[in-house]
């Protein structure tokens, strides 16, 4: 059975993702701002967790290939580093991971966890300001964040 050109491209991109890619759930801690009138710190935002998939290489061809296939952002990181970075986040990252999943080897567990994180999370962004994420939802997101860290560094003792 012959392999299609698209399957060959996805297998190649999965190899790049396994070797040079990054699948991460990042965490941004709450920020506070100072209110001089009250002389106190006011709560500004809650802890935020974001799924990101990226490829960073000195050869621009693979990042461009990801960009033309999946969209996202493509940046040249400067003359000193001479690196190209392609990246997507949230639901776009899930689309990329699902397309590459049949071919991923080294980062397969990270990809599965990332898809679980994005698809099972409760989304409050559409509901507007003033919504509070439940303690259960925050703890679930933190648990997945910690698990992703363990998958990235299996040699590290907890």
Count of helices? 5
Overall form = globular
* Cα radius of gyration in angstroms: 19 Å
Determine the structural class based on helices, strands and strand pairing: alpha+beta
Count of β-strands = 6
CA-CA gap between termini: 46 Å
User: Quick one: CATH class?
Assistant: Alpha Beta
Q: Walk across the major sheet and give the strand order.
A: 1-4-6-5
Helical percentage: 40-55%
Note poorly predicted spans.
Answer: 40-44
Give me the CATH fold name. Endonuclease I-creI
Give me the strand/helix succession. Answer: HEEEEHEEHHH
Outline the biggest β-sheet: 4 strands, antiparallel
Q: Give the number of domains.
A: 1
CATH architecture: Roll
Supply the CATH superfamily name.
Homing endonucleases
How would you state the average pLDDT, rounded?
86
Report the β-strand fraction as a percent range: 15-25%
Description:
This protein is of the alpha+beta class. The chain has a single domain (5-152), classed as Roll (Endonuclease I-creI), CATH 3.10.28. Helices cover 43% and strands 23% of the residues. The chain has five helices and six strands, in the order H-E-E-E-E-H-E-E-H-H-H. It has helices spanning 5-20, 61-70, 90-100, 108-120, 135-152; strands at 21-28, 32-35, 40-43, 48-57, 73-76, 84-89. The strands form two sheets. The protein has a four-stranded antiparallel beta sheet. A hairpin with a 7-residue loop joins strand 5 (73-76) and strand 6 (84-89). Helix 3 packs across helix 4 and helix 4 (108-120) runs antiparallel to helix 5. The radius of gyration is 19 Å and the shape is globular. The N and C termini lie far apart (46 Å). The relative contact order is 0.16. Mean pLDDT is 86; it is low at 40-44.
């Amino acid at each position: 059975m012959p392999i299609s050109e698209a399957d060959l491209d996805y297998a190649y991109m999965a190899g790049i993702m396994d070797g040079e890619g990054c699948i991460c759930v990042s965490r941004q801690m709450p920020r506070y701002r100072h209110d001089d009138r009250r002389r106190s710190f006011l709560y500004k935002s809650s802890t935020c967790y974001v799924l990101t998939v990226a490829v960073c290489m000195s050869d621009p061809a693979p990042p461009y290939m990801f960009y033309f296939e999946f969209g996202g952002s493509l940046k040249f990181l400067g003359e000193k580093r001479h690196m190209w970075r392609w990246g997507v986040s949230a639901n776009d990252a899930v689309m990329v991971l699902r397309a590459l999943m049949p071919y991923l080897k080294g980062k397969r567990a990270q990809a599965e966890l990332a898809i679980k994180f994005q698809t099972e999370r409760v989304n409050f962004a559409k509901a507007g300001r003033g919504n509070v994420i439940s303690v259960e939802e925050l703890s679930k997101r933190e648990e997945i964040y910690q698990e992703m860290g363990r998958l990235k560094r299996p040699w590290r003792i907890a």
